Structure formats: C-alpha cells, structure tokens
Write the structure tokens for this entry.
Amino acid sequence: MSKEIASELKQVFDWIDKNQEEFIADLQTLVQQPSVSAQNLGLFECADLLQKMMKNDGLPCDKYELPGGPPVILGDVPSSKNPKKLMCYAHYDVQPPEPLDKWIFPPFSATRSEGRIWGRGATDNKSGVLSFMKAVKAWKAIADDLPVSIKFMFEGEEEVGSTHLGPFVRDNPDLFRCDAAHCLDGGMNLSVPVPEIDLGLKSILYVELIAHGAKSDVHSLNAPLVPQPAWELVRALNTLVDENRHILIEGWYDGLWQLGEEEIAQLKDKVCRVDVDAMKEDFGIKEFALGRDNFEAMKARSYEPTCNIAGLTAGYQGPGDKTIVPCEASAKIDFRLPPLIDASKALGKLKKHLAEHGFSDIEVRSVLGDDIEPPYKISVKEDISQAVIEAAELVYGYPPIVNGVSAEGTILRHVWMPTVLTGFAQPDCNLHAPNESVSISTYIQGIKFAAAIMWAYGKM
C-alpha cells in the first residue's frame, strides 16, 4: 500500500504532470542528437545541446573538456536550507544503433507513437539525464529552493567504459566531492513493477587472450609441423574454471565479501517477491545453472565471482570448407569481481596462472586498461539507501527490490561517496537493441522518482 505523500512533494508531482509536454519535447530533442561513443559520433554536439538545455531550464552548468575524450557537464545547484550535496550522475552517450534494418522508426527520429518515445538513448540514458534536470526545475518552480544541494554530473563515455573520465576525476577530485551519489541508469524489475535498487557493484576485468602460431594461416596438411593456436587456447581456457564454475586461479577469492544478516534478508525478500519462473522463461531455460534453487541463484548473481567467455574466435567461419591451421585464436573473457576482491591485483593473478600452467606465450590484453574500476558495497542503512527506498515506495506504491550489488563506479575509484544505482527502465525497452524506447508515463514517473529522492535524502 502506498504511503501518504507530503504536501510539498505532491505539489511538485502535480507541477510535473502539468508540464509533461515540455519534458516530452525536450527528450525528443535530445534523442534526435546522435551521441554514439563507440563511433565517436555527435558527442561534442550533444554536450553543447545538453548545456544549452540546462541553461534554458535555469540550471547553472559548466562544460569541462577531457583530454582525448568528450566533455563532462557539471552543475551545482545549492539549497539554502540544506548544505548536504547529492550527486546526480547520468550519461549522454548511447550505444551504436546497428543493425539499422531492424528499427521500426529511424533510430534518431525520437518518434512518438503508442505512448512511447522511440529512439536510441530514449531509455539509456537520456531520459535519466532529463529526469534529474526536470526534477530540479520542478522544485525550483514550487519552492524556489531545493530540499538538498545538487551536483549534476553528466558524462559522454559510459557505454565504452568511461575511458577518459577516471584520470580527470583523479586530477580534479574537488569538482566531484559530494555526500552521496545516485544514478538513474537502472531499471524496473521484470515481474514486479517497482525499481531495482543496487547498493554496490561488481567490477569488470575484461581481457582478451590471444594464442599465436605461424605467421599466417597454413594448409592443414602441415598441421604436424606448426603450432595450433586454437588447441592451445582451448587447453588454457580449461585451466581457468572447473565444472562447477569455480575459478581455479590461485588467490582469486582473497577478500571475498562475506554475507551478513542484511544481505541475506535482501536476498530472501527478492526471492519471495520476484517471479523467478518468468525470469527463466525470459532466458529460455528450464532451470538455473548448476541446478541452483532460487535463493542460491540470486545469491550467485549478486555475490559470486564469475569467469565468462564472451567471445571465441579462430580460423575460418564462412560457408563450406577451408582446410587451414589458423595462425591465431582469441577469446574475450569478462571476470565479474564482487566486493572486496582486489581488482588491481586480479590481472596479475591471471597472467601468473597462465605462465605457471605452461601458457606464458598466450598474450593477455586488458580491454579496459590498467585503471580497473574497483568493486564496492554500501549498507542499506546509509542515508542515500534509505532515501532511494523511501522515494521508490512513495512514487510506485510498493517497496522496491533491493539488490546487494550491480555495476557502476568510475568516480568512486578516486572520490569515495556512498552511491546507489536505481532507475526506471521498463523491461521491454529494448536496451542496447534495435527499437529502444521509453514509455512516456514511465518517463514522467521517473522525473517524480528523481524529485522524491532529493526530498527524501534532504530530510535524512
């Protein structure tokens, strides 16, 4: 049952409802500007547009050029009654739109149809960017003040790993210091119409293993004479995990987060409320891997280290036959590292493991470089955790689903603050796929969610 909404907050919600056509038009304008970080397409133009839109809304902001990368937009909006500062993080870059022939509407048309805005970035994450902006505009319109001081932080490389953001934060920490942070880049639960709230992250160590052979592909008649990179790679991969997916690299589990009563209670609540059968159906499976029951499966999703082969390539892949010994074989692997595994040491442990097992000739490339985001975890008792939970219940009518960890965090490597990932992406929004869209009602509700988080955190 929904909680009673405070009078001041209800006025803000009513103002948002009355001005939703403006918010819809602004989202269409922002989506119509391409900003594909993987293709270096339109990023600077999008940053300029976003800065212009913020100033049109009366929101102070500055654009900071990053050496080698697109700009970061920062803006401080003080509260006269509450000096606590809440960072509102979002990103204006989007995924590539390909394959283009799969789109119902052109990917940057921002077409309004069937109660939705269709276009790349409509959900991820341009509606999140505008939700923060419009929530602040609503508070200023109703109260001429904010319930808490706000720091806007919008970046343009989230979809490619925030490559240039980390060094900029490291060199300019004072620009980013806040009492807490949150992000509206997450989504709604698949089976329960409430936001998911993530109180931490699994870090990602993404590597490419490359086995080399002859200087070029060789006729397979000569297989006895030359190295066989594909087999070499297969044997190396087979040393990384056992049949139960336990990672065999020495010391990999050192410092692993040990679950307490708080985390176990969150997992039990999730299992009771989430339709796990619908989750299995969505995956197209009959049971979870390794025959895990629902509790153990949800526990593994949040807290288990993983070694996943994301791509495997060797030799000829076309139609018909081609009898060759390929000169190279490669595997793309993502390791998910939960708290408190030391991400900075994980790459070294992998290289040592391969060398000790006779695979020192296999090249190891860290796709994301050496500046790996660390995993982190905060308590549900933190003010920002409680504020987001309360705001979600006020806006959506029911308590949200609280997860232990998920993924976000470049800033936290250099400037620590308790951070929560949440959001309002509906399950059918086609995130990262053709025909991405956002439900207009979901978008307007997301603006209210952002406004309610500011209100709830301000009174903590």
Remarks:
- The chain has two domains: 7-201+375-458, 203-256+305-366.
- The domain at 7-201+375-458 is CATH 3.40.630.10 (Aminopeptidase).
